[in-house]
Amino acid sequence: MAAVAAAALARLVAAFLLLAAQVACEYGMVHVVSEAGGPRGKDYCILYNPQWAHLPHDLSKASFLQLRNWTASLLCSAADLPAHGFGNQIPLVARGNCTFYEKVRLAQGSGARGLLIVSRERLVPPGGNKTQYDEIGIPVALLSYKDMLDIFRRFGRMVRVALYAPHEPVLDYNMVIIFIMAVGTVAIGGYWAGSRDVKKRYMKHKRDDGPEKQEDEAVDVTPVMTCVFVVMCCSMLVLLYYFYDLLVYVVIGIFCLASATGLYSCLAPCVRRLPFGKCRIPNNSLPYFHKRPQARMLLLALFCVAVSVVWGVFRNEDQWAWVLQDALGIAFCLYMLKTIRLPTFKACTLLLLVLFLYDIFFVFITPFLTKSGSSIMVEVATGPSDSATREKGCWWPTATGSTSRYSPPEYTSWPAPSKVLPPSPWAPAPADSLQPPKDSATPLSPQPPGKEPATPPQPAEQPPEPCVPEETGAGAATREPGSPAEPEGRDQAQPCPVAQPGALA
């Protein structure tokens, strides 16, 4: 018992120290512009520790410096440094194998003005001790792997960056909008469902045998329905984890159909109040149309389907598709709150308890059961990193009955998927052949006089892919020489040879 208590106390102390270290962490921005003109600059979120060095709060006061793609190296020893150093540059290196202090010390000693560390995993604050903080005078920050891919895909490889940390507002208007959307949806849906029940009790002695009922019948949730619903959710989540590329479009189609139904249900009471379009279609034997719906209701149905289809086609547009998605999601939630009814306290308790266990299992327990050590729900929600569909996220019912979509539009709120990317057609060089990183201007091995180092030509119409070393360790995938090439169009970086220990810079 004493050993168990000591181990538990050690875990609590470690957790406390981790939380204490995270207090110093702050979010900053890296503003990226292309040296060749091209597209407008863009901000990317970074996680930095102000105890290393402070960042200016205004972009106009930040210096634009050249970003040096040195991700072929982990920057853990002097052999990883370029021959001429990082004079007035900000190197971009890979995370792993050594501490943040060792990386930033080498970068500062070679003339770097800052350090960006690319991380495939959750962004953590780059910590150190007081002595190390006093020694280092350049900022060091972590950048997510997905953001690094977007930088080189959007701006090419010759870019300039400026690090800054804008003041956080006292009140984040984004959180205010989210709060209003969430609470407003629940309040409106609850009021709508309650008013329907009151109206139903008031008119319980009247019958509506007309061709079109004014309101849909509510569905009472039973314990059997709850169990069937949770089993279906679990099965679909597991299937999405293993067959994401095949089933993601099925889920998107289900969301389009459900959101169109919800939008129709929400707008129908308003359309019925309009003074025109009351004429009905002629008699026919077609499904649904045999009830002779009004022309205005038919137009409303076409409008709702069109809105859902527009979102399905342009769902990956970062500028405006999220507005349409939120509107469809709210409409679907209102429809569910109006239609689904929990008649007893027992049914409500059972539903919430089962969904509570469902969330806990798939978020916190499944990392111990999967080979990659990742949560099944987080992996499905963020989209696997090796997915060929290039879909940004997945739409999945949560415990609140709503749908959620996670995309890179959220920076570091969720950890990046820890799955290793599939092997690429480029095979790493053997240990006995020294090759410089792709962006290095100086070869690692001496060349004969009068000869230039051989460099493979790059296509002029496409910027080269960023260079990131493959992960090592037990979880890293192996690549056999001569294996078939990967299909083109994948959103991933080409692996690069890691600098060998003792190699000449």
Percentage of residues assigned to helices: 25-40%
- Multimeric status of the protein: single chain
Order of helices and strands: HEEEEHEHEHEHEHHHHEHHEEEE
Shape: elongated
Structural class based on helices, strands and sheet pairing: alpha/beta
Main sheet properties = 7 strands, mixed, barrel
Q: How are the strands of the biggest sheet laid out side by side?
A: 1-2-6-5-4-3-7
The count of strands amounts to 13
Features:
single chain; 505 residues; alpha/beta; Glucose Oxidase, domain 1; seven-stranded mixed β-barrel; two-stranded parallel sheet; elongated; disordered C terminus
Give a structural overview.
The chain has 505 residues and is an alpha/beta fold. Among the domains are: 25-164, Glucose Oxidase, domain 1 (3-Layer(bba) Sandwich), CATH 3.50.30.30; 219-404, no CATH class. 38% of the residues lie in helices and 12% in strands. It has eleven helices and 13 strands. The protein has helices at residues 2-23, 100-109, 130-135, 145-155, 173-202, 223-242, 244-271, 295-313, 321-339, 345-365, 376-382; strands spanning 26-34, 37-48, 65-69, 89-94, 115-119, 140-144, 159-164, 219-220, 340-341, 396-397, 403-404, 467-469, 494-496. The strands form four sheets. The chain has a seven-stranded mixed barrel. A two-stranded parallel ribbon has the order 8-9. Helix 6 (223-242) packs across helix 7, helix 6 (223-242) crosses helix 11 and helix 7 packs antiparallel against helix 8 (295-313). It is elongated and about 85 Å long.
